[in-house]
Amino acid sequence: MPVALHKLLLFTFGIVYLADGNSALLSVRKDPRCGWKPHETKPWSYFNLLTRIVGGNQVEQGSHPWQVSLKRRQRHFCGGTIVSAQWVVTAAHCVVDRYILDYLNVTAGEYDLSLEEAEEQTLPVESIIKHPNFNPGRPMNYDIALVKLKGSFRFGPSVAPACLPDPDEKFDPGYICTTCGWGRLRENGNLPQVLHEVNLPILNYKECSKILLTLRKPIQGDTLMCAGFPDGGKDACQGDSGGPLLCRRKHGAWTLAGVTSWGMGCARGWINNLRKNYDQRGSPGVFTDLRKVLSWIHGKINADLKMKSSTASCSSQDGKLHGNEGSLHFPESPKHFYENNQLCVWTLLVPKGMHVLLNFSHFDVEPDTFCDYDSLLVYSKDDRLVGKFCGDDPPSPILVGYNSVRLKFVSDNKEYGAGFSMTYKAVSPDALPDSGCGSLAVLFKAGVIQSMHYPEPYSNLAQCHWIIHAPEDHVILLTYQSFETEENEDCSYDSVTVYEDSAKEEEIAKSCGFAVPPPVLSFSNVMLIIFKSDETETFGGFRATISFIHMAGKGSNEYKWQPAFPQGQHRRFSRES
Ligand code: 4AZ
């Protein structure tokens, strides 16, 4: 697929969207007060190493003013780190429960969980942003989330933010950093009342990935970092998750280098892992490497600052847009952010008989696999849904084979984005039959489709998509007129694939090679056709006609399907004589 590896092309209910975890790097205003403990003015020294979670020690009150306790009602369950008066960084796995906002409280200035300290402040939560690439299966990539508080913490001697790393700031392997929390004091051991900390050296990435491989958790270009001693003895443990791994930068400020994520047991050594039963093996502490998610954090916190100045809102009323071309920006400026609980509708109307081409230049709508939270929905003829979009990347252009398109934008009561900008223009209905190659073509009429440049050789790395909608009570017949594509046993190089539905769930036929494939018939009035080519060898491609066949009610025996093609690659259609 001609997109970077971290981008995922998804089709969902007639949807094409690209999900991309990285937002633009914007700088959150730097807080010069970050990273300082109340009585600490000296720069980092080896003396700090003598202080000795599991194998650590109880801290002095106020010595980690950035540490918070995430509480389910009154009970501590995870740690977190203050990075600004309104924002706390924690682990995504701590906040996966969709109903967590109903009970989550965040306490800062906490030291002894059984007492109420003088500076202790507990706030409810306004919203939680989990990293969209978070994968809960170990090795648990992108285990990071931002918690926005309802209200702000008042900073003082026992409540203060940690620094975020600078974009070019690196803590090298061997550097001794500190993790802290109210987690167990040994594996399956007791939970302490007071905050503990332990110093751990950062491991190099190769070493980290080798150790995790002994646990059958391969990592590759991931967001993980490891810290610990090969013989074990010191570690974070259950209940420390979400809390910080802090490294002291050159000039002394404590900087959030990682977020506590997981480990195999607690404080177990790992040097003889391969000689041990799987259950007995150990691992270093595994943390989410802040450097890898820094741009996402800055993007989200900045987005929030910008949103405060946003005036964008809309009702469900239809904003009608007429003419041969135009543009639509929602909200009005890409510097603003849409609000929660929006329902907006626009109808784009081009002159009768013309088709509409939509081109998105900017797109930022809360990502979700099924776009279930916020989304832009595109409807056309007979109010048929032709696409549902969300994510961080603009959808590819969409050519709608009708003269009107209705756009509906919905947002839920959580998270938000910068919306979208698009242009639309009227295009002639004799749009080229290869229109599916420069855009997603959504067609409502019978006609012809073909690969790009047909009958000249098609391009390498082609991705052409046509979604065909027939009127109700009709099925769609795809009849190839000519066919010339790279031959391969399982058609994994170049191919034309026909799907039953626009979600790509049911494949009806996949063809490649030089023989004209048999016609393909849809089950319903929708058909998705995808032509793709790999990076080598190109041929003349294909040309096919699309026709609609009326199904004369249920039980009709006007048409019959033959059984599936022996290799399961083609379903033939024949007319009973
Ligand atoms: C946890 O479940 C957890 N030994 C955190 C860290 C480690 C293990 C478990 C690392 O919160």
UniProtKB/TrEMBL annotation:
Q: Which GO terms describe its biological process?
A: fertilization; proteolysis
Tell me any Pfam family this protein matches: Trypsin
Q: Where in the cell is it found?
A: Cytoplasmic vesicle, Secretory vesicle
Q: Which coarse location class describes where this protein primarily resides?
A: cytoplasm
Cellular component GO terms, alphabetical:
transport vesicle
CUB domain segment(s): 314-427, 437-549
Give the residue range of the signal peptide.
1-21
- Under what name is this protein listed? Ovochymase 2
Lineage summary:
Eukaryota, Metazoa, Chordata, Craniata, Vertebrata
